[in-house]
Amino acid sequence: MGRKKVKLAWITNDATRRTTFEKRKKGLVKKVSELATLCGVEACLVVYGPQDAVEAEPEVWPSPAETARVATRFNSMPEMYRWRKMTDQEDFLRQRVAKLQDQLRRQDRESRELEVSLFAHEIMAGGRILDDADLNDAMGLMQMIDLKLKQPNPLKIQNMS
C-alpha cells in the first residue's frame, strides 16, 4: 500500500520537524548505503542539521575520513569529467520543457494527420466535397497523398513473387 502524498511545506511544530528530519536523514543514509553496496560505487553523504541544533558538526557517512577521501578524489578530477552529468534545477527544467515541447509537436503532427485522414475518408464516403476544404486541409491532403504514393505497395510486391 502506498503512502499518501506529503505536502512539502515548512513544519511549524519543532518536535515534529526534528522527528521528521531524523527519520528522513536515516532513510537518506540507508539509500546511499544501498547505492554504494548494490552498484559498487564510492559514495558519501554529508548532512547538516537544523541551524538551532546543539551539534554544529555535520553528520557524515560512512566515516569522516572516508568522506574526506571521496570528496578529495572528486575535487581532484578534471572539471570536464566532474560536471559532465551534473545538473541544477534550471538545467533540469530546461530539459523537461524541451522534452515536453517535442512531445507536443509530435502530438500536433499526429492530430493533424488524423484530421486529414478523416477529411479524406469523408470525401471518399461522399459526406464532404473537396470544395469544402480550406487551404490547410487541401495542403494536408496533398501531402498525405504524396506520402502514400511514395510508400511501397504491398500488393504489388506480393504479385511480383
Automatic annotation (TrEMBL):
Domain MADS-box: 1-54
InterPro entries assigned to the protein according to its UniProt record, in alphabetical order: SRF-like_MADS-box (IPR033897), TF_MADSbox (IPR002100), TF_MADSbox_sf (IPR036879)
Gene Ontology molecular function: DNA-binding transcription factor activity, RNA polymerase II-specific; protein dimerization activity; RNA polymerase II cis-regulatory region sequence-specific DNA binding
Coiled coil (UniProt feature): 90-117
Swiss-Prot/TrEMBL keywords: Coiled coil, DNA-binding, Nucleus, Transcription, Transcription regulation
Signal peptide: none
SMART domains for this protein: MADS
PROSITE patterns: MADS_BOX_2
GO biological process, one term: positive regulation of transcription by RNA polymerase II
Keyword Ribosomal protein part of the UniProt annotation: no
Subcellular localization(s) per the UniProt record: Nucleus
SUPFAM superfamilies xrefs: SRF-like
Pfam families xref list: SRF-TF
Matches recorded under CDD domains: MADS_SRF_like
Gene Ontology cellular component terms for the protein in this record: nucleus
Keyword presence, Plastid: no
Record protein name field: MADS-box domain-containing protein
Upper taxonomic lineage: Eukaryota, Viridiplantae, Streptophyta, Embryophyta, Tracheophyta
